[in-house]
User: Fold this.
Amino acid sequence: MSYAHPIPFRAILRHVLLIAGAALMLAPFIWMISTASKPQTEIFSSELHLIPHQFALAENLREAFAKANLLRFLLNGVIVTISIFVLQVMVALPAAYALAKLRFHGRETLFALVLFGILIPPQATAIPVFLMLHKAGLLDSYAALVLPFTISVFGIFLMRQFFKTVPDDLVDAARMDGISEFGIVWRVMLPAAIPAVTAFGIFSVVAHWNDYFWPLIVLNSEQLRTPPLAVAHFRNNEAGTSYGPLMAAAMVIIAPLVIAFLFAQRRFIEGITLTGIK
Amino acid sequence: MSDGSMTLGAAIAPAGATRRTLPAHGSRRTYSAYALVTPAAALMLIMLLGPLAGVIALSFTDYQLGAPHFAWIGLANYQDLFADKVFWTALRNTLAYVVIVVPGTVIAGLAIALLIQSGTSLRSLYRTIYFLPVMATLIAMAVVWEFMLHPQFGLVNGMLRGAGLPAFSWLQDRSTALYALCAIGIWQAVGFNMVLFLAGLVSIPKQLYEAAEIDGASSGWARFRLVTWPMLGPVTTFVVVISGIRSFQVFDTVHVLTKGGPSKSTEVLIHTMYTEGFEFFRSGYAAAITVVFLVFVLLLTLIKSRLADRGVHYT
Assistant:
């Protein structure tokens, strides 16, 4: 389509339509920043204006940080997402290597189970996993947030497909150098698979940073809250009265991922659309 | 883990070259294979397959969290469920949500992808903007949307009033609340589908368009109908099913914005499951809802694999 005779009218129409759509897409972000920058009196006025007459972003941010321990919640988000990702890699990479490069009894069955596991939506296992954590006395802890996600069948599948493309010669050469199978996973396969691991990492971190369902179920304590839970609680406690600080808090919560995305969009889009395979 | 195995590797190093071909080494490698897959296999059993079997088993019991006893009650949970008006409301609302959000995100996603791909300038800027909602934490943006939809001070009603149109209490009115949630769902997911369609468009060979033009397909619409649409067939099926599965799981916006209200007008399956299972702790009953949800999701997956087999004929 792009080779069509360049008619300026068509090019202009393309931009007009895309800009109109982009305005719709960006409207909530713009409204969020605008509201977070307004003082209370301007927020509660029925006259619409985007640019505040009097800037109050600093005050709203200060109030947001005072009303909720946002730094702590962001830190929780970092601890939980990083722990999940590291454990997922530690569990998935060896299994993926064995499935891709080693012959053993039950390999086909295991791979079939991995493929089946990909089909199971996370909500389906929530009740039994919750009951198990309850029995184990692990509810309301970092462990409750992390443990259920240490196994990523999707990660195993993805890495197995990638390892299939790594030439056998590389593995054989490593064996001849006397590297054990365990050593091969971490010293040969991992370095070769960095692009795939990065894409999976982005997918995993984004999914768990944004997850609301699971933390909502297993958490009780305020100090363990993850960023989405923190916003939801902030909203329940403050909505109707202090929209400025609430919007400021929302800004703070989405900022880390959005900024990372703007810096490395290609990698992020690649990583997140991996779910497409799911 | 790798340290220990390295010393093990060093110990067998001198004989490594000859051992490669010996059967003994083969069995050692098999042994390693089991060691490598054991953690994953065990966790899969504990965290995924076991709980899946568990949720099905649980749906035939009257188990309640904290209750000392429980009993097998056969299909009683399902009988209760199918006799419960709230369940049917939730199912109807979920289906309505899916039926609105899937076409919305698929058609808009395709249209945006086609528009972006039809020119060369500002491609990556547009892609970034449309993808931004996919990245942003949905809960945070849902709270923003709630304020945008605020009856008095929100942007949406402000603009409607400015245009001389009637304003609504979007999320507080039972006739509009579900549609408002659909709009947020579409806004959030459209960029995801756009990216999948862009990948599909890029992979269509240019020669096909040239051939179509020689055959007289000169208008953009003719080229779309003869080349783009058939070639995108497999991608489209895929996007439709993925969007369907994701829409079925709608929960975040419902829980934080409406709690299923007003008067159950936005009650959806996963929200009912959450309320029964994690607020009233009626685990058995909630498990039955989960099984119903699971049946729908697996049905969509089945359709996908069926159509994916057919899609092969295109390529």
